[in-house]
């Protein structure tokens, strides 16, 4: 079996890959497609010696390191790791941890939204 998902980004201010991954997860869940876990994604970067979560376009264009991470939150598994610059190992670990925590926060939020949506559908059915 194969599922194709196409995402059209109408306006972007950074983090489009992560936004598309999170949107695809929501689309699959909303369609009732069984999944072992939800995939969530978040980016983090390092600019002027400061780790930043979910870079916007200006921060991303400033030339600092940018790491995009996708995870299966319940399974605690990394499904995506993209990095566009070399980083010292300690800096990479800091940025990776920040992005992973962002993914976990998004997973918690998505689960809450899906649960609320399920409750509303249940109430509508009576």
Task: Write up this protein.
This protein is of the alpha+beta class. The protein has one domain: GHMP Kinase, N-terminal domain (Ribosomal Protein S5, domain 2, 2-Layer Sandwich). The chain has helices at residues 16-30, 57-61, 89-125, and strands spanning 39-47, 50-53, 65-72, 77-83. Strands 2-1-3-4 form a 4-stranded antiparallel β-sheet. The chain is elongated and about 55 Å long. It starts with 15 loop residues before the first helix and ends with a helix. The mean pLDDT is 92.
CATH topology: Ribosomal Protein S5, domain 2
Number of strands: 4
Q: Indicate the radius of gyration in whole angstroms.
A: 16 Å
The appropriate CATH architecture is 2-Layer Sandwich
The CATH superfamily is known as GHMP Kinase, N-terminal domain
Give me the side-by-side strand order of the main sheet: 2-1-3-4
Integer average pLDDT: 92
**Protein structure class:** alpha+beta
Approximate shape: elongated
Estimate percent helicity: 40-55%
- Under the CATH scheme, which class? Alpha Beta
Q: How much of the polypeptide forms β-strand, as a percent range?
A: 15-25%
Please outline the major beta sheet.
4 strands, antiparallel
Low-confidence stretches: none
User: Gap between N and C termini, in Å?
Assistant: 33 Å
Q: What's the domain count?
A: 1
Helix tally equals 3
Order of helices and strands: HEEHEEH
């Amino acid at each position: 079996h194969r599922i194709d998902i196409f995402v059209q980004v109408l306006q972007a201010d950074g983090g489009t890959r992560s936004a598309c991954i999170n949107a695809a997860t929501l689309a699959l869940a909303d369609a009732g497609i069984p999944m072992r876990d939800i995939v969530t994604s978040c980016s983090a970067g390092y600019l002027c010696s400061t780790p930043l979560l979910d870079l916007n376009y200006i921060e991303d264009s400033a030339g600092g390191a940018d790491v995009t991470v996708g995870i299966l939150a319940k399974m605690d598994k990394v499904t995506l790791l993209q990095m566009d610059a070399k980083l010292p190992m300690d800096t990479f670990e800091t940025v990776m941890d920040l992005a992973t925590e962002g993914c976990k926060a998004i997973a918690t939020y998505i689960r809450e939204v899906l649960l609320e949506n399920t409750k509303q559908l249940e109430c509508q059915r009576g």
